[in-house]
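TL;DR need structure tokens for one chain.
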Amino acid sequence: MASSKRLFVALWPDEPVRRQLYARQQQIMRNTGFTQGRVAFENLHMTLQFLGQVPVTALDQLDSRLSRVAVPSFQLTLDCRGQFAKTGILWLGPSQPADSLLQLQAEVAAACRPYQKTAGKAYIPHVSLFRKCYQPVPLTALEPVEWLIDHFVLVESMTRSQGVQYRLLQTY
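>> reply
TL;DR here they are.
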């Protein structure tokens, strides 16, 4: 058994929202011809906090801390497309992040602080649609994705020969 797990905390879309995200991804592929680094359908999510390697012995305490985070129900509108040139991420996110989202992320980050190895970067809410996208991609308009948020998840990230695989460990 591994002594640690590579973890992150995320918003995990339900099937209808996941299908909408996938449709936007397909639209970008049709409009731009870009296909490299497409994030797999089952891996689409919005990270709230990346943790990296966390000792297995700390999982119960982490779970306890995350279970105390209040999750308000709120609507999230993903209506902005962007690109992180340095990391090669093409993403979809909110043009105006809801205060409820920013508060939830701050509370999750505080709960995770004892397990973080490095100081956190400024939070930019987004769903990664493509990786390895280092060339500028024309940002054409996309229909917004409406997402009702009422929970978050703790996820294990595992690197396999067929690519990254995510396993949901807990829902809050």
